[in-house]
Design a protein that fits this description.
It contains 11 helices and 14 strands. The protein is of the alpha/beta class. The strands form 3 sheets. A 6-stranded mixed beta sheet has the order 6-7-8-3-9-10, sandwiched between helices. Helix 3 packs across helix 4, helix 4 packs across helix 5 and helix 5 packs parallel to helix 6. The protein is elongated and about 75 Å long. The two termini are about 30 Å apart. The chain binds adenosine-5'-triphosphate (ATP). Keywords: ATP-binding, Nucleotide-binding, Transport. Belongs to the ABC transporter superfamily.
Length: about 325
């Protein structure tokens, strides 16, 4: 189907490390990326994001499963769609002594893109005037934006960025985020992987959350956040000891943190106030807690015993 830019079913990859240990990096991944807009591909370090992206791009072979890009099975029919796809998986090589513009002009020539595209892509990535400066004088954020500009030369419909903000300062992160947002708004599909959920939350139209090589949740940011962590209410009250049993009797879960009670499970915040008031206890402060992707992620992975702390990057090598 062409309304999906990317789709995978049962995708699987096992690495064998130099010491002969088997590492299942991707275990039956079902991923759907709608065409148009920014899709956040989220998961902690080592959850299989890079491996999945490399399989999609035909850089490594899957052990099992199927993948499509714009409805075409890949890697079999990758040549038909490759011109519609731009990706940054590793830092691309540019000539340090040449300007950003010169580097892009050389690339445009190499791939047969019109020279006029160079000015356009510099503008699209807000490099504009700085295109005249030497590459070696660029900040990390500018280098990363030049890499994005290079992928834009051939006007791809799908852009795949693997952790594009790694190592950038807050200003650099903001610039990349704005670039992604404007690319998505132009109707392109941006598939961006990240382990920093808060970063993607602000630009993604839809997200997929993976843990240990498997899909844990997907949908719009609102759907994913709404589905987990729903109905938590933060309560400030003088007498914690007396309030806790009253709230647990109502069937809610209560936890004390930083002087506040966090009450899970109440359908409406007002139910919490009412229940306490009935027992002559009055809240000093009450606020619904909006779950962010970070807490959603922890909630989703907790059941799997795969919290972020438990996943440590394994030994690397082999075919990487
Ligand atoms: N070439 C390789 N040989 C052996 N194991 C590997 C290789 N590449 C990745 N792995 C392991 O596979 C698992 C998934 O790694 P992958 O890089 O795909 O995850 P990721 O979500 O992209 O994480 P990161 O953000 O750290 O790159 C990890 O346990 C990793 O150590």
């Amino acid at each position: 189907m062409d309304d999906l830019a990317v789709s995978t079913r049962g995708l699987r990859k096992t690495y064998r490390t130099r010491r002969g240990k088997r590492v299942v990096a991707v275990r039956g991944l079902d991923l759907d990326v709608p065409a148009g807009g920014v899709h956040g591909f989220l998961g902690p370090n080592g959850s299989g994001k890079t491996t999945s992206i490399r399989m999609l791009l035909g850089l490594i072979r899957a052990d099992a499963g199927t993948m499509t890009m714009f409805g075409r099975p890949v890697p079999e029919r990758l040549p038909e769609v490759v011109s519609r796809v731009g990706a940054i998986v590793e830092s691309p090589k540019f000539f340090p002594a040449f300007s950003g513009r010169k580097n892009l002009e050389l690339l445009a020539e190499a791939i047969g893109a019109p020279r006029s595209r160079v000015g356009e892509v510099l503008a699209e990535t807000s490099l504009g005037e700085r295109g005249k400066d030497k590459y070696r004088a660029y900040s990390l954020g500018m280098k990363q934006r030049l890499a994005i500009a290079a992928t834009l030369l051939k006007e791809p419909d799908l852009l795949i960025f693997d952790e594009p903000t790694n190592g950038l300062d807050p200003a650099g992160i903001r610039e990349i985020r704005e670039t992604m947002r404007s690319l998505g708004a132009q109707g392109r599909t941006v598939l961006v992987s990240s382990h920093i959920l808060a970063e993607v939350e602000q630009v993604a139209d839809t997200v997929s959350i993976i843990g240990h090589g498997r899909l844990l949740a997907s949908g719009t940011v609102a759907e994913v956040i709404g589905g987990a962590g729903k109905g938590t209410v933060k309560v400030a009250i003088d007498n914690h000891e007396a309030a806790i049993p009253v709230l647990t009797e109502a069937g809610w879960t209560v936890r004390l943190d930083g002087g506040y009670l966090y009450v899970d499970g109440a359908a409406h915040p007002a139910d919490v106030t009412r229940r306490l008031a009935e027992r002559g206890m009055y809240v000093a402060e009450l606020a619904p807690v909006r779950a962010d992707l970070e807490s959603v992620f922890l909630e989703l992975t907790a059941g799997e015993g795969l919290g972020t702390d438990e996943i440590k990057p394994g030994p690397r090598g082999g075919d990487r």
